[in-house]
Amino acid sequence: MTITTTGRARPVDVDVLIVGAGISGIGAACHLTSRRPGTSFAVLEGRDEIGGTWSLFRYPGIRSDSDMPTFGFGFKPWTHHESIARGHVIMDYLRQAVREHGLIEHIRLGHRVTRAEFSSSTGRWTVTARRSGGPEETRFTARFLFLGTGYYDYEAGYTPEFTGVEDFEGRVVHPQHWPQDLDHTGRRVIVIGSGATAVTLVPALAGTAGHVTMLQRSPGYLISAPAKDAIANTLHKVLGHRRAHRIVRRMNIVRNRGMYTLCRRAPKLMRRLLIAGVRRQLPGHFDVDTHFTPRYNPWDQRLCMVSDGDLFKAISAGRASVVTDRIDRFTRTGILLESGQELSADIVVTATGLAMSPFGKVRLHVDGHVVNPPDTTAYKAMMLSGVPNFVFALGYTNLSWTLKVDLVCEHFCRLLDHMDSHGYSAVEPVLDDPDMERVPYMDLGAGYVRRGIAAFPRAGTRGPWTAGMDYGKDVGRLREGPVEDGALRFTAGEPAPAASQSEGAR
């Protein structure tokens, strides 16, 4: 199923305006349709296809770096036999969710939101979106604004400045913008990087390339996982999809949280175990100490998942190799390293990371004042101090992204229920502890986080202002905890009238 609807060009007024039709925005829309069927909403997507990350990235081998029973939605069982799923399988799953919840008529593709302004006098957001293919702008109004835009820049990935790259006679590509006409068959390929993208690309390219070299400045932690979960697939056959989904999801959450906790509490032990796991999958003569022994502790950066050990199989078969060194410069025929070694290449892939961007570059204003994200503090890691009727969804870095998104969407629906039952038109988090220390929203050592986190909201160190990546605590405060909170300021009164659901969804 291909979704191509762009909706009507006329302005529309809705209860909730969702920005982004990736996994977060689709999740929010599904929660609204099932939990609040009378709520009108629209979904604006800047690109011409739903799916977010999974429709943007088209490089060979793209797959999830989390198990799909937890990366998928809690309300929609993951039934495919692949637990570590390929990108097109994930896209099929998202299209199914859109169809099953009747979201097609709510989604407007090709609407890139550039500006959102909240007016306290009307209690509504006015959102400006630029139509794809031209300068035409469309305006929407909404009671609530929900941003499901992720945290990285969709327009460009991160590529360091390499000396001499203009001298290279081959082709240089970034995975975020993979050319569909790129033929790597029989070619010498260098993949620069050691993160999840590089770990995925190398074995995928090695199947047909002449040879693939993973060139890394320093190694990261890798852990193998089966692409197909035999226990999960058996449970689905025996118990049915819904019952099996609940069991497998809970089992995987416990396992993944346990792995993370062990890495933080016993880093030396887990370091030995992780490196030993890599060593077992490589030839005895392989230099694991140089190429797969990181300088940092496990989970200072995210663990990279190797599906079915395919990277190690490609290395063991001689189709791929690993070089750990620093780049001196590009040459006409490849890359010269600081050690003096020169690697020959026909294609160089710069799997060098993401560029972070808060809130999809949407410029926020409240009563005429610009909202500068670093000046705000995240409330329950889903709202911003001083910004009324606003919710955002950023997933976990240490567990599956969607586990957090589901909790945020559940709490958002509870918040709307609470406001409707008490006659509130607006809600605003108010930082009631001005002396509280503020810290970065994410505490992760990855390069993309270090480069970009300063542009994001800050987190607090106490109460609802913390933003720790802790699923157990988030279940307590988002799913089970009360909506009422001393840090929330509710405004009584009837909200400005919204369009009916049938009109607002057109």
Automatic annotation (TrEMBL):
Pfam families: FMO-like, NAD_binding_8. Its cofactor is FAD. Transmembrane segments: none annotated. InterPro entries: FAD-binding_MO (IPR051820), FAD/NAD-bd_sf (IPR036188), Flavin_mOase-like (IPR020946). Keywords: FAD, Flavoprotein, Monooxygenase, Oxidoreductase. Belongs to the FAD-binding monooxygenase family. This is NAD(P)/FAD-dependent oxidoreductase. It comes from Streptomyces luteireticuli.
